[in-house]
Amino acid sequence: MQIQGQTALVTGGASGLGEATARELARLGAKVVVLDRNQALAEKVAAEIGGVACACDITDTASVNAALDQAEGAVGQARILMNVAGIGGAKRLVGKDGSPAPLEDFARVVGVNLVGSYNMSRLFAARCAKLDPLEGGERGVMVFTASVAAFDGQIGQQAYSASKGGLVGMTLPMARDLAQHGIRVCTVAPGLFATPLLLELPEAVQQSLAASIPFPPRLGKPSEFAELACHIVTNGHLNGEVIRLDGALRMAPR
C-alpha cells in the first residue's frame, strides 16, 4: 500500500516511538491522526506535522470509538493503524519481604499492552473491512509494537514480557483472520531504543546498555523503528510476521 494520501492512526503518537512513527508517516504524505491519552502532547505533535490529535484510551471502547469517529470526520477513514501505545513495569514475583507481587500490577500492564492493543485493532478492523479494496484487494495494514522482552524477558518482567509475548502470539492468527478482508498484520519487536524514558537514565547506564548491543553498539534510533513500520505498510507481501529490530541483542537475565 502506498502511504501517500492515506489516513494513518498512531496510538501513543505523542512521544517516543509513536511520535517518530507519526512524523515519518507525515513525511511520506499520510494524513496522520495522533492518538494519545496526553491530549496536550498529541496536539503539539499534530500541529508540527500537520496532523490531527485525538484523545484516546485504547483500553476503553467508548474512547476508541469516539476517537475513530473524530478522525474519520476530520481526515477520512483510516487504512493504516500503528499500535505503539504501551506501558512498562517490573516487579519480582516474590518481593524482598517475601510478599507476592500485586496482581493489580500484572493486570494493568497486560490490560494496556495486550488487551488495549487488541481493542484498538478490532474496532479499527471492523471499519477498515467495509472500505473499498485498493489494487490487489488490499484494504488496510496494522502494525503492533512488541519487544525483545517477548523472547528474552528479564527478571521482574513477567507482566511486560507476557503482554508483548501476547502480541507476538496474536500476529499470525490475526493476519489469517483478516486475510479475507484484505487487511495485513505485522509486529515489530524493538530492542533498546533512545526513547524519552530510557534517556532519563544516567549517562553511564545508557552507555552500558548500548555496549550490550553487538552491532551497532548504540541505542536504536526512534526513526529506525518508524522507517521499518512504514516499510511494512508499503511492502505488500509482509504479513503475519514478527520482526526483531535490535542490533542482534539478546537480553541477559538482569
Describe the structure.
The protein has one domain: Rossmann fold. The chain is α/β, with parallel strands linked by helices and 254 residues long. Strand 2 (31-36), helix 2 (39-49) and strand 3 (52-55) form a beta-alpha-beta unit. The chain starts with 6 loop residues before the first strand and ends in a 9-residue tail after the last strand. The chain has helices at 16-27, 39-49, 61-75, 103-128, 149-152, 158-178, 196-199, 203-211, 222-234; strands spanning 7-11, 31-36, 52-55, 80-83, 140-145, 183-190, 242-245. A seven-stranded parallel beta sheet has the order 3-2-1-4-5-6-7, with helices on both faces.
- CATH-defined architecture: 3-Layer(aba) Sandwich
Provide the number of structural domains: 1
CATH homologous superfamily label: NAD(P)-binding Rossmann-like Domain
The residue-averaged pLDDT reads 96
Please, how many helices?
9
Could you say which overall geometry the principal axes of the C-alpha atoms support?
globular
Summarize the amount of helix as a percent range.
40-55%
SSE pattern: EHEHEHEHEHHEHHHE
How can the largest sheet be summarized?
A: 7 strands, parallel
Structural class category: alpha/beta
**How many beta-strand segments?**
7
CATH class value: Alpha Beta
Task: Please report which band the strand proportion falls in: under 5%, 5-15%, 15-25%, 25-35%, 35-45% or over 45%.
Answer: 5-15%
Organism: Rhodoferax koreensis
Keywords: Oxidoreductase
InterPro entries: KR_dom, NAD(P)-bd_dom_sf, Sc_DH/Rdtase_CS, SDR_fam
Family: Belongs to the short-chain dehydrogenases/reductases (SDR) family.
